[in-house]
Amino acid sequence: MVVVDDHAMFAEALAARLAAAKGIEVVGIACDIARARLLVRSLRPDVVTLDANLGDEDGVELARELAVGENPARTIMVTCVDDVDRVLQAIWAGVVAWVPKETATSTLIAIVRSVVRGHGWLPPELTADVLRMIVAASGGQQPDGTRLAALTPREREVLRCMVGGLDRGATAAHLGLSLNTVRTHAQSVLNKLHVHSALEAVSVALGCGMRPTRTLIPEPRLGVIRQTEPPRVGYRLSSRQTSVPGRGSPGAIGVGVLVRWPDRRQRQDS
């Protein structure tokens, strides 16, 4: 197996503890993504332990790369990150286990052996939240194998708001996010779906079977316009001349407009 962590001392200590276990051989240590790619490509390990954050680099994206190809390595996230969104991102990237760094070495060794047999593992305290997020992200529908699979749970929620006709301000209020965060997620949705507008993203979402929940359908903004009878308009001309203060010359001829709306009772009697 290969151990990947941006903290060299932690990576070396973890590698030493794992290598001391019966049946586990650590063949390489990497502290950045470039080195990790090289080791995995050349050594083809069965298992890779990987931190979610590798300095300024994203361990989840590396996991996505490692999951592609023939007989890919099984990736275990060993990290101090406990954000449910990141856990979901990792699962959809192909990670098979998510292990907090404070986990006992004996437990991690057991997880490694379990992963080699084809099993997965999540911390019990995160499992319920992860399952709820999966259900929320799918809208209660079974997961699809379409382009939406690349979206994170939060991005799916933003896209579902788009499908529901909510603008970014309404989406921010509905999801309890800042407007800047919604903008970031919306742009990420466009990038991952390879489209250039929200309209195209909505079209893709609808084609994949995504539907807005009833609470996301915006209320109509225009009411029903009731027909009324036109008013009777009469014109009255006045020949009375008026004088402009401070001037002796006569003013213009006044024009008055008298508007009478039809009386409701007269309409009923007619």
Q: Outline of this structure?
A:
This protein has three domains: 2-126, Rossmann fold; 133-216, Winged helix-like DNA-binding domain superfamily/Winged helix DNA-binding domain (Arc Repressor Mutant, subunit A), CATH 1.10.10; 232-269, no CATH class. The chain contains eleven helices and nine strands.
CATH architectural category of the largest domain: 3-Layer(aba) Sandwich
- Strand order within the widest sheet? 2-1-3-6-7
Number of domains: 3
* Biggest sheet record: 5 strands, parallel
Structural class: alpha/beta
Give the overall shape, derived from the CA principal axes.
elongated
Tell me the CATH topology of the largest domain.
Rossmann fold
Secondary-structure element pattern, one letter each:
EHEHEEEHEHEHHHHHHEEH
* DSSP helical segment count: 11
> Which blocks of ≥5 consecutive residues have pLDDT under 50?
220-228, 241-255
State the end-to-end CA separation.
Answer: 94 Å
Structural description of this entry:
By secondary structure, this protein is an alpha/beta fold. It folds into 3 domains: 2-126, Response regulator (Rossmann fold, 3-Layer(aba) Sandwich); 133-216, Winged helix-like DNA-binding domain superfamily/Winged helix DNA-binding domain (Arc Repressor Mutant, subunit A); 232-269, no CATH class. Helix content is 44%, strand content 13%. The protein contains 11 helices and 9 strands. The protein has a 5-stranded parallel β-sheet, sandwiched between helices. Strands 4-5 form a two-stranded antiparallel sheet. Helix 7 (153-163) packs across helix 10 (198-207). Mean pLDDT is 80; it is low at 220-228 and 241-255.
